[in-house]
Request: fold
Amino acid sequence: MSRARSCRFARNATLPSRCSRLLPLLAALLLAPLVARAHNPDTSYARVTIGEHEVRFRFTYDLFTLQKVVALDADRDGRTTRAELQRGLPEIHAFLRRHIAIEIDATTADFGAPGGFVWPPDSGDAIAEADYHTASGLIHFDFRRPVADPPENVALAFRFIAPLSDRHTVLGSFDHRGATHEVTFTRFEPDYDYVTGYEPPLWQRLWQFLRLGLAHIFFGYDHLCFLLALVVASRFRELVKIVTSFTVAHSLTLILAALDVMRLPVRLVESGIAATIIYVAIQNLRGAPTERRWMLTFGFGLIHGFGFANVLGEMNLPTTSLVRCLLSFNVGVEIGQLAFIAAALPLVAWLRRGQHERRTIIAISGLLALFGAAWFTDRALNLGAMPF
Reply:
């Protein structure tokens, strides 16, 4: 098209050559003010600059949009001054932190320390209301987030697009190692996960997965309830076999699922985990023998392994050293569950002293059966009332 346009201009040229050379310059001078002021009032901007030791965020809005967040023109004189914007800065920062979600390396983060705002250089100390929705009214808000190591991925999600306007669009860019990746955020696509391609050292990745395994046990209340149901009615010798069989079973399905050798629907797995709690609790209430419970626990451990794999499925799993990372996650799980059993066993033994043994088993198992039933109903029917 550019070649055709050049030919057309050559055919229509009737002015002297000097004048024809001046025409592009004259057009540029005439259009420059219009281009400088061009800006869609339903558009804001986001720029993420990813460095080795920090991630910088710049969010840019016109005053027309900012007035929807906080009343900046306090004296209502039809213009916003630099001082008025400074007074409204805490409320603007709070709005941004509340409505923009950040994840660094699949972990929720914040923007870091604010760097104030950047006032339009050619606007003096005040911007007239007529320029609120133009490029002359664009304000930049900068934040710096330090990171110990270069991040593997940075995700950005906007939650305020619909409240501002159904048509509001955020033009975003991710800058990393001299390359720029542009993204458009809308109410239909409000988030984006940028992968940097950085691979951390193996020891660091193993430590990350070990901590994740620990955290999953301590915050995986359904797994803890299952372990408590086993502890409350079992003797120490039986527990050794039970924990061993549970470990072998869930390690097996964890690795198979993480490697995509075998997968089960998440809803089925989560409902199955709740069902294991109910079953063991009812067995305790019935006073069923526990000598061979390790075989039952092996089968239930296979189900729990798929649940552990679902947690890993939400992460960006590494392409290298995957098996070692899975084993590290599993070690974290084992450390967590052994710590829980070590803490629960003396307490349960104390409660079971003398004639209170049967009452303790019934009371704890009954409560666990109720929790299991609630989880099973919620997960099987996909109610979302118990997101823990």
In short: The chain has twelve helices and twelve strands.
